[in-house]
Amino acid sequence: MDKENPLEQNKTSKKQVNFLKYTSMATQMGMTIGLFIFVGLKLDAWLETKVLFVLIGSLSGVGLSLYHFIRQAISDNES
Questions:
Q1: What predicted TM-score, i.e. pTM, was given to this entire model?
Q2: Rounded CA gap, 35 and 79, in Å?
Q3: 69-76 LR contacts (CB < 8 Å, sep 24+)
Q4: Which stretches of the chain are DSSP H helices?
Q5: Has residue 28 got a pLDDT over 60?
């Protein structure tokens, strides 16, 4: 049997954890932005405006997502 070095297993495990962590962060960012755009579309339809709330929603979603991503990256870097 070919056994891996415990250090190699730890590196592989850490890579997998990082991959899953950042993949979930990207998914969360996409869903947040999509939700804000959806709400903007519904508000535009309800208030009969053209693209005002879609723009506000998309920019707010991007801003909130970036804020959360940077905050989480800093807290991960500190630990």
A1: 0.78
A2: 31
A3: 69/25, 69/29, 72/25, 76/21
A4: 6-47, 52-78
A5: yes
